[in-house]
Amino acid sequence: MPLLAQRCFPCHGDDRHEAGLRATARATLLAGGESGPAIVPGRSEESLLVRLASGLEPDRRMPPEGDPLTAEQVAVLREWIDQGAFWPEAPPYALPLRAVEVPEGDGHPLDRLLARSLADQGVRLDEVVGDAEFARRTALDLLGIPPTTGQLRAFLADESADKRARWVDRLLEDQENFSAHWMTFWSDLLRIGSEVQSGTFDSDATSGPKAWLKGHLDRNAALDELARDMLSRDFYAKFTQSVAPPGDIINAVERPEMQLATVVSQVFLGIQLKCASCHDSFVDRWKLQDAWGLAVAIGEEPIEIHRCQNATGDFAAASFPLRELGAIDASADVDARRRRVAELLTSRENGLFARTLANRLWARLFGRGLIEPLDEMMEHEPWNAALLDWLAGELVRNDYDLKAFLRLIVASRTYQLPPVIRQEPIAAPSYVFRGPELRWLSAEQFVDSLQALGEPLPEDVTPLRLSGRSWEQKGSRLMTMLGRPTRDVVVSARIEEPSPLWALELINGGELQELVQQAASAQFRPSETPEALAERICLALLCRVPTAQERQVAADLLGPEPSESALGDLIWSWAMQPEFQLVP
Amino acid sequence: MHAFRSLDRRACLQSLAGIATAALSADYAPSLAAASAPPDPTADCMILLWMAGGMAHTETFDPKHYEPFSPGIETKRVLSTFPAIDTAVDSIKFTSGLEEMASVMDQGTLIRTFMCPVTDAITHAKHQYHWHTGYFPPLSVAAPHMGAVMARTLGPRNPDLPAFIDIAETFAESSRESAGLRAFLTGGFLGVEHAPFFVPRPEDAARQLASQVGASRGASRMGAFRKLLQASPASDLVSSHQQESMLRAVDQADRLMHSSAAGSFDLSREPKKSYEAYDTGPFGLGCLLARRLVEAGARFIEVHTPYKPFGYWDTHENGHATVAQLKRQIDRPIAQLIRDLRDRGLLDRTLVVLASEFSRDVMLEGKEGKFSDGGVKQPPHMTEPKHYGMHAHFADAGSVLMWGGGIKQGFAYGTTQDEHPCKTTSNPVEIEHLHATIYRAMGISPQQAYEVERRPFYVTRDGVGRPIQELFRSSPARG
What we know:
Strand order of the largest sheet of chain B: 9-8-10-2-11-17-6-18
Shape of chain B: globular
Structural class of chain A: mainly alpha
Mean pLDDT of chain A: 87
CATH class of chain B: Alpha Beta
Number of helices of chain B: 14
Number of strands of chain B: 23
Largest sheet of chain A: 2 strands, antiparallel
Structural class of chain B: alpha/beta
CATH topology of chain B: Alkaline Phosphatase, subunit A
Low-confidence stretches of chain A: 197-203
Distance between the termini of chain B: 69 Å
Radius of gyration of chain A: 28 Å
Number of strands of chain A: 4
Strand content of chain A: under 5%
Oligomer: heterodimer
Largest sheet of chain B: 8 strands, mixed
CATH architecture of chain B: 3-Layer(aba) Sandwich
Number of domains of chain B: 1
Low-confidence stretches of chain B: 1-27, 236-243, 364-376
Strand order of the largest sheet of chain A: 1-2
């Protein structure tokens, strides 16, 4: 198919069909053009496509321009035709959530669902991570910063049986840090704080989409409410200003309603209408009409469908891409149409909405979704369909309460398993679940963990209050190198790979040096012994005490009379450790 | 304190092994086989000299009727505000102020007919994005910069140096439009691994690589970092994966700072005479740095005249005076760059390209009868010196210069009208084909594609670019 798209569609496509042939569907290839059918399924030697493409008829070689197809490419075509010229049709998709039977027994339902497959992998559910790692993992996952030493001490000293559950409850009560952490997750998805489309937007925290999102997180608004509010008149205006300012619109697919349509469907349904906003998609089920239908449904005026930026003369009828859920009354006013889209999007019959969110949140906590890529929910099977529908069902049962859902998952032993090293590429079908994958700290987690050290750390269990968290700040070179995107497109999974430039920024960049020095000034106490200083820093950064050897390295670096700058160097040396830069 | 145990050994071992295997997970944007085999390269590295803001062709490399300024002259008679000068090639003329570059015209090719595609709004940020990536923003995916494509496809030439180095763009402006620059000066979907290494101030390049905390302190804390790594409960595993991912990255950064290649960033090592030959400001020193980096084995370098709305080449008024001043910045260092590369035997395998997002015209910008808000109103007669110059965005012709890397010498391609508006009359060159020519010279097929979101993303728009064979010294066998 990519071969046809690349070499045949330019002349035999939907726009241009030379010799009467369209090569964009099995039916039109069978119907053929002026010279008869292009393909005869099962008989490549009789198929005109193969005869012309392989140069058997030198006067009619196809494609006439550019290099002829290679022998390998012709072989691919022949094999495809000999095997019946199968044209991928979208597999049927069952929208409603299936009822999942959780095996009987004790323990967390999630563990019961996975116990068997984990046992097959030799993973024991009673071998969960230790308290310190649990504390660091949960604090980073839920709040984006490590626990303070005071919090950690109290947790480790706690001997009650339900200490982990109570620890998680306390983290979830820390609303300020919770909101700050989850701002990043949603901003990447909803393109909030787009640096490209609006340079001034990043500094605007008092109104606009940033404040809108913060407000929702601060009151732990249900996720279906968040989705519905995105389609409100209020948000539409804000969103338009940030991702599709009127002055920037140069073609039809950039219209704000199309932007919102593609963002909403990608984020909340895990489907990509981007291809279909320009032409019927070659890679999935979506047609031009699906993309424009949704845009029209949420837009203020009728829009003429454009194919590849050329007006088609047709006007799209308002529709929702998952048509089986219901129709949209095209004669209704814009507010009513948006309400209807919001209703269809978040309806209980629309299991795809709950699955997509459950999958995103699972990926956030476990490093890999049940379906990957996260934006192709209808195109791939999950590695455990029952688990996905159970998770989605729990999300629904908890009325889309983000905190309740997170609390549920982190309470499982499955979440508390030791970290697993990623062996397979992210979307590999061979993936087998063995526990949460080891994850790099996000740019925000990295910076905030160090900023935390720049604050007077409370000795008790009081939540840490940072004077500013990195989500509020403009993107910087350090943040970029650590993987923060510019948000000119929806980002479901960041690219966080070490590279020489990344390392150079950490070794030599001014921003990290400043963070480290601030931390050193805040933590430095002239009266303290080098030994005690090193222990405090190690605890704050890694949630553990240093080993004897580490103490020696620290002592050598700090010298008998430590200085602030020497302490800064020690903080830097620890911040560069993989152990610091990974979520345990 | 007994409660604080060291990190569980098993978890720690796994953590550190993860660093190694994380490198395996670079599964984003896999390369797709091109329909044709990659061409044999005629260049190993490239320097892009970027004239940001819209450089008027009739004021630089494509002189037309010269009309000196006097109050009251008829605007439409003004095609060039500089007289024509001879170059080293009889048939090619430049405008005055470019005498040095004129003297090396016999080493390269002039394209007179670069066509900027016209959209409803000709804006700098979008057209600069377009020039550097081959695609118009906004896009559904983040398009990689040409330098990132080369970094990804060809890799670094000298592993001690970043493959893509960007010089003299300071991002000093924080206006919304210039924020658009950040959008294309990135690795795009290819990731930060292929993003440019920025040297905003060439004179400070060495300081950028010198340890920020001083050499001895930098060395001491790097030593502490390595010792802590060994002292961690998983030191044995770390050492066996030292070349992998994070540690490999740290080692490479460390090497960049301390290898002999690092010395190439240090302009103070350049002989005084040579330094002065280039020193016309940040752009000139950027050319010097680019030459030193080519000598050291860099792959792709871009040197900017900075983009500033209504500044530099973005001459919406006072065009003549501004361009005269810009010529003083670029003429000597570019000519010196070409001569130095030639004298060192490097020009044959180094492709140097000078370009701008579009050209300018004396008339108002916008369509006839419909003037855009941003344009400076040009009266039918020029009364003040500030009216004298090329002030409106112009898309129908523009100059591109190419030297070295297998490109013809003393050659001009394309013709433009001698009458206003001096647009293309033969051999128009679109960005796809210009890019295809550049990629072809570098040994990259214009149909090279990377997969993103399950669709191919071609290095020239939709893979349609075709190299302009006439520009190559000996016509390549294929490409």
